[in-house]
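The instructor's notes for this session suggest beginning with a concrete chain rather than abstract definitions. Hand out the sequence below and ask the class to guess, before any prediction is shown, which regions might be ordered.
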Amino acid sequence: MRSGTDSKHRESLEERIFFGIAAGIVRPLMTLLMGRQWQGTEKLAALSGGFIACPNHCTEIDPLTIGHMLYNNGRAPHFLAKAGLFKPPVVGHILRGTKQVPVERGGAGAGRSLEVAREIIDEGGAIIVYPEGTLTRDPDMWPMKGHTGAARLALKTGAPVVPIAHWGDHELFPRYAKRLHVFPRKKARVLVGDPVDLSDLRERPMDKTTLVEATDRIMAAITALLGELRGEEPPAVRWDPAEHPETVHGRGGRDAGRGAGEAGPAAGSAAADDAEAAS
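After discussion, reveal the predicted structure:
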C-alpha cells in the first residue's frame, strides 16, 4: 500500500515536511488505538486529479480516521475548518503548514477560503468537506440532512465528489465523550464509494433547487455506503435538525448545547456555504 502523497498532488516542499511531521504522530497513534479495514481505496487511485471527499460524521476523531486513510493512499488531506482552530500557535502552525483551509463565517475571508480550496483541487489535492456541517444528531447515528457547501464547491470547480462512510471509530471516542474507550480494541472500517454523478446538474443554474438536489445525491451515496458497512437498512427519511427541538450545533436534553462550540473540520460545509455567498 502506498503512503504519503504522490505526483497527482503537486504539494510544496513545506507541505511535504509538515505532512511528514503530522503523519509521524498520527499514524502510529491510530494504528495503536484501532485496527482498520479500508475498502474501495482503489477508486482513489483511479482519480487523475483533485477531488472533494465527503464523509459521514459521528465522532470528533473521525477526521483522523479519514485523514489517515487518504494519506496512506497517496492523497494528502486538506480540511475546510473554522478559523478558530488556527489560533493556537503550535496547532495553527501545523495546520497552515499542511495547507488546511481556515474558513471565516462571512466576509472577504470566506471568499478567500473558497479560492484556496479551488487551488488545492487544481493542484490535484483532496478537499474534505463534511456535508452535515457538524456531528450527526440522528439518534441512531445515521447521516442527517446536509448543507449545500460541498455541492456548491463541486459544481463551481467541476471536481468529482467521492462519498466515504466510516464506522467503528465512534466506539473509541463516542459522540460528545470526554475520554477514550480503549479496551477492548476497536476497529475503524472505511468504505470509499464511486464519485457521485452530478453531470446533469453542471449546466443548470446554481439555484437552491439545483444545490439541494446535488446535496441529496451526495448524502444518499454516503448513507448507502454506511448502510453497507453497518449491514443495516438506513432510515427512509434523513434526520433534519430543523424539525426537532434542538439546535444544529447541539442536541436536545442533557446534551443540549454541548456541540455549540464545535469548530472542527465538520464545520467546513456550513462554512463553505458562507464562503460561496461571499464570493
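Then share the key points. The mean pLDDT is 87. The chain has nine helices and seven strands.
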